[in-house]
Amino acid sequence: MNHPAVKKAKNKILEIVFSRTALVLLLILLQLGAMFVLSTILRDYAVYVYSLELIAQILIVVYIINDKTCPEFTCTWMLLILIFPVFGCLFYVYVKLELGTRMFGKRLCDVQMETWPYLKQQKEIVEELQVSKPANANLARYMANQLHYPTYRNTKAMYFSCGEEKFPELLKQLKTAQKYIFLEYFIVAEGYMWESILEILKQKVAEGVEVRFMYDGMCSISLLPYKYPEEIQRYGIKCKMFSPIRPVLSTVQNNRDHRKICVIDGKVGFTGGINLADEYINKKERFGYWKDTAVMLQGDAVQSLTMMFLQMWNATELLPEQYESYLTDMSTELKRELGFVIPYADSPYDHENVGEEVYCHILNHAKKYVHIMTPYLILDREMLDALCRAAKSGIDVKIIMPHIPDKWYAFAVAKTYYEELIEAGVKIYEFTPGFVHAKIFVSDDDTATVGTINLDYRSLFLHFECGTFIYNNPIVHDVEADFQKTLTQCERVSVADVKKISPFMFICGRVLRLIAPLM
Asked: Is the dihedral of CA 185, 186, 187, 188 positive or negative?
């Protein structure tokens, strides 16, 4: 007789093999296989198609070189076309002609334009910022003019150094809701954290509070049932998946909603790296201790988080939105001690690399130090140069990485950057108790950003992301204090340590770095 544990494992394997997820992945692989077979068949008729293939390769390469994208994406596509000429060309053309991506991008742009009247920049705020720090005033103008994310004053901020700190405050604030609650998260998993939140949402709906809940479709792969929105809607909660996973080869499914936003009555807003699953509050252990961060805003700047949520929500809605009903009155009394706050979002469709712009801005204008926490370190040349240039200029640049990674292949690629960074003067540390999921930059005791944006290609170029840039707010000291405390639990990585990496990890990292932009 089989042992119960063995029987349970077998049943689990069968569930995975015959699940909807396995079917979706199988159908996508079949579509890729069909494309590859087609390219192979065409190559068999080399006499007839060689000239056409050569012309197509030349035209596509010329187009790629002149395309407005980062050089690393250009190199990866050219490598793919060089190794698999016909398949590479077909795949590139397919990606560029993807109608679903264009249609969704156009719809999102239209919705964003609808919200612009509610995201106007007060000129006097930028003028005050100009006096305090001209470089930050330039960033504020860029944010307002190109992206319609204003700079605010009169915004209180609270920093959370881990999920265990944020969770009780989130529950407390949710219980105060009187008008509406908006939730937008990348990962939601059934367990203590989500069930605790869901009970409050049910209660609030019963009290007449409007609740909208949106999560990324990747959750349907292994965390939630595919029809989970229907189950949640039975409680009176408006619920939807962003970009559900479907068995169709489509670039739309490559652009995930990686944001974490909670807005309560337009008065309180949360963002940061913490999702709605038990590992984020260390109720469940996956990769040792889970180190994460978040920020809570109270005041004028919450208005931008409200509009960010409504933009994404309405990108798949047909009925017009009453944006005015979700706005709050702006403060009339200036509280100078709260400094300046800029909530911002990043989209793969607007050709503005906002997340990288903010990070490079902090590196380029630091005078004493830049301290960073990130779970991944897969850098394009611009980001790599900014880090090295800052360190070579005498700026104290420190990066805290995980010691226990969640993805071995991403860790292998990250280690390929270590030697160059360390030789330039960047100090790299690994958090020995476990996994760092935080995404923070803090500089010079006056500037910080806390958000969802990792230092990798997916976050910087392919995902929907968000963050909060903070200047001269007391919270900056809390972020730096947390960094210093975390640093005491870290081991510094030396060049000698890098050279001890196993041959397998070394080779995998170097090979995977070639295709990192497409990972």
From this structure: positive
- Dihedral-angle region of residue 236 (phi above 0 means left; psi in -120 to 50 means alpha; beta otherwise): left
CA-based torsion, 127, 132, 137, 140: positive or negative: negative
The pair of structure tokens assigned to 475 is 């919270």
Check residue 139 and give its pLDDT. Answer: 97
Q: How far apart are CA 264 and CA 177, in angstroms?
A: 6
The amino acid occupying position 458 is: R
Q: Indicate whether 16 pLDDT > 50.
A: no
Q: How far apart are the first and last CA of the chain?
A: 44
Whole-number CA gyration radius for the chain: 24
Distant-in-sequence, close-in-space partners of 79: CB < 8 Å, separation ≥ 6: 514, 515
Report d(CA 247, CA 253) in Å as an integer: 10
Query: Would you give the DSSP letter of residue 350?
Result: S
For residue 188, list its beta bridge partners: 276
Give residue 398's identity as a one-letter amino acid code.
K
Confidence band, pLDDT 50/70/90 cuts, at residue 4: very low
- Residue by residue, DSSP assigns 404-424 as S-S-HHHHHHHHHHHHHHHHH
Q: What is the DSSP string of 302-340?
A: HHHHHHHHHHHHHTT--SPP-GGGG--PPPSS--GGG-E
| Structure token digits, residue 431 | 């958090």
Which sign does the torsion angle of CA 71, 140, 242, 115 carry? negative
- Pull the structure tokens for residue 454: 């990792």
Given this model, what pLDDT does residue 511 score? Answer: 87
Average pLDDT taken over every residue of the chain: 88
Q: How many CB atoms lie within 10 A of CB 244?
A: 15
**Which of 500, 464, 203, 514 minimizes the C-alpha distance to 316?**
464
The answer, yes or no, to whether residue 331 has pLDDT greater than 80, is: yes
Contact (CB, 8 A) for 373 and 439? yes
3-class DSSP state for residue 469? strand
Under DSSP, is residue 91 helix (H, G, I), strand (E, B) or coil? Answer: helix
CA distances from 488 to 112, 190, 432, 433, 502 (A): 43, 33, 10, 11, 27
Q: How confident is the model at residue 244 (pLDDT cuts 50, 70, 90)?
A: confident
Query: Are 240 and 150 spatial neighbours (Cβ–Cβ below 8 Å)?
Result: no
Whether the CB-CB separation of 504 and 174 falls below 8 Å is answered with no
Q: How far apart are CA 142 and CA 157, in angstroms?
A: 23
Provide the token pair at 226. 């595919």
Nearest partner of 274 among 401, 170, 378, judged by Cα: 170
